[in-house]
Amino acid sequence: MLQQNNKWTTVILFLLLSLSSGPIVWSQDTTAQPLTSILKTLEEQHDVRFSYDATTITNERLLPPPANLSLSESLLYITQRTDVSFKVIDTRYISVTKKGSFSASRCGQLLDAFQRMPLSQATISVNNGSYRTSSNADGYFSIPEAIEGTTLQISHVGFETFSIDMEALDVDCPQLLMFPSVSLLETVRIKGILVQGIDQNADGSTVVNADDFSLVPGQVENDVLQVVQNVPGVESVNETISTINVRGGNNDENVVLWDGIRMYQTGHFFGLISAYNPYITQQLKVFKNGAPAWYGESVSGIIAMHSSEKAPKRIEGGLGFNLINANAMINIPLSEKAYVQISGRRSINNLIESPAYTTYSQRIFQNTDITNINNGASETNIETREDFVFYDLSGKLSWQLTSKDRIQWNMIVIDNDLDIVEEIPSSNISETNKLDQTSLATGLQWERDWSERFRTDIQAYASYYFLAAFNADLLSRQALLQENEVLDMSLQVNTHATLSEKFTLHSGYHFSEVGIANTQDVNLPRFRDYEKDVLRTHVLYSQLDVLLNDGNTLIRGGLRGHYFEKFSSFRLEPRLHLWQELGSGFALEASGEFRNQTTTQRIDFNSDFLGLEKRRWILADEEDTPIKTSKQASLGVSFSKESWFLNATGFYKAVEGVGSNSQGFQNQFQFSRTIGSYKVYGMEALISRKVNDFYGWIAYIYNNNEYDFPELQPSVFPSNFDVRHRLTLAGTYTWNGIKMSAGLRMNTGKPYTLPLEGNEIDTSGETPQIVYDTPNQERLPNYIRADLAAEYVWDISEQSDLKMNVALLNVLNRKNILNIRYVLDTDAEGAPVVRQIEESSLGFTPNVAVQWLF
């Protein structure tokens, strides 16, 4: 074992040295290089993008500028030594042209279609990608004669993107009208609130853009479900993606969408890894309050993921691996109007069991039926072996049918399979225990722009989730089969109308049919229990977006109505969101909403799935399981100026219709079946700053979260998710092309319940029972974790890169306790005793990822 650990230590040190050697070699280069290569290096160093006609600078070669020069100094260095000049389009894009080649023989002027005012900083790009420029303060732009192309694409934040023929431009600079976007409230108000790629929108959402994202400490891939846990108010109390909590809510109170399709499974490896390929997940949008009226079926958070919608000009893709899984993706243009995208991932533990896989296995399998089997194998002369595999596949077809119509088809498959084989070698008796968790989903969407001011989108989807466990006792031959199935079919029709430059109206109709089945089947003695529920829901909604005071005041008001066929009941959900610019960098944000939820998860520790998956989906029946309802309000103030961003938000949320069997009690309330509520209030604060190539941020969260179950005694006590204080400190830095990040997470422990001291066991009945003290009055030890990550990209050619990432999770190898529970055991004399069981976090976990992008 020591020799194996030394081997992996050597491998990791070698990879770290490889990361650092790349820029050192570059900085010592004293030979002339192509200008195109130098520009790519500057793009990586300063996170900018150069646009140019490759044919005009192909022959330009020079010595690279010294590594210690700033971006502006490097541009001046190149200008003085070549025949090119630079024009800064915005904070990220820079245009490169031949000196003296700029001509105004082909020009135009961009105007706001309603106010007839010039639009500056619009982006104008040639269809073949050879040139890009921007409009000036008077709305004018021009295209040099040397630039070839037939079509121009013109875009501007807050306005509809459109295309025109190059022939429409001439020396008279014709006026071109741009119409406000029907999604005005999606305008990005604050960019990079934590790091580059995490933005705050005026519509109240926090957006993670994977293409622009920097590094998150401890992660080798930009997994958006890991990244979003850095946003204040979004966390996981047990380090898993499958149990993300938004402002103190349970994980089943979030709705998770993949390209508009609702998903009922979010993780691989039983929640430790996201089930969605990070290399095709382009964007994640999360709403904590005041969500748009077209979102429903959750009382806590909205987590909406979108795959890449970038139409490729050529075949693009990637191949790669890390110490847990391998992946592949490809993006193929079928024509100028259509493309197909295919991706897949698979675990590699059947080829190599890396230290990362070993650490993950120890974390997820601890104190489960699997470890119990292994621990007891030597006593009963039973041999065991495990076979675990996970994979996901996704496909997408996008077709721009006409200039006004787009059709998109999506599909995704997620699968986790675990086989545990037990056998007695002497008698050739064997049994296989199985756990299978699968999701299948597909959706078809049609978007049409009926005019410049009216758009519709129609989507139909089917989402299927299946969880099954087969557990057989090798000696008694008793076998238990458990299954949980969900089938969700939906049709959605949405309309978006721009009434004027100030008003946008959204309306729509949604229909859904959700069926959920649960099965328990025992062979000895014969017993079978099968339950199935179906619920059909009709939804009408309408929402008005208002933009006032030159965009400084944004108001969104909506109303969503649900009709539940089975219960013949109707419920309304009002939504309100306000964003007000106060001047001098200050802004005020207020949100409020009502929401309902008909699906929830039940937790049963006595009939769990091999101890690994304890949750099963169930439907509301308005008897034992009511429809959940929530009311929430929040008020926040933010400051954004130059390189600073500060935000403080207070919130209050009340949720009713909460089942005690959905909260995971492991105390005197474990077998209770009653309905109650919880109330949570708190504050989220964030300070971040960017200085040159350094991003740093500090985030603090305070929560006070309490249950109220009138039929329990006591009725009011702290929630299982009551993590009072959480503090995150992190920073990212780019040096000579190497991206580095470091972070520290600290939070107070969640509550748990102690046995009653001096009277831990009640032996008055036939079966001894643990006697518990006051519920949730004790706290786990404080959680502290330090993480590191690094990334470097090598240019292999003009169209391919090699990227390497190294991450060290829990670099201090601190043992953090995630849960404490108590069970009855017997001592050497057979007397009952109470045994404490601790569930620990991931230990020191190194990981490496290598990705070839082309």
Unreliable stretches (pLDDT < 50, length at least 5) are 1-29
Return Rg in Å: 29 Å
Number of helices: 8
Enter the CATH topology name of the domain at 316-853.
Answer: Maltoporin, Chain A
The total count of strands amounts to 54
As an assembly, this protein is single chain
Q: Could you tell me how far the N terminus lies from the C terminus, measured between alpha carbons in angstroms?
A: 39 Å
Please identify the top-level CATH class of the domain at 316-853: Mainly Beta
The major pleated sheet works out as: 22 strands, antiparallel, barrel
| Rounded average pLDDT | 87
Pairing-aware structural class of the strands and helices?
Answer: mainly beta
Please identify, by name, the CATH architecture of the domain at 316-853.
Answer: Beta Barrel
CATH homologous superfamily of the domain at 316-853 - what is it?
TonB-dependent receptor, beta-barrel domain
Q: How much strand content do the residues show?
A: over 45%
Please estimate the helix content. Answer: under 10%
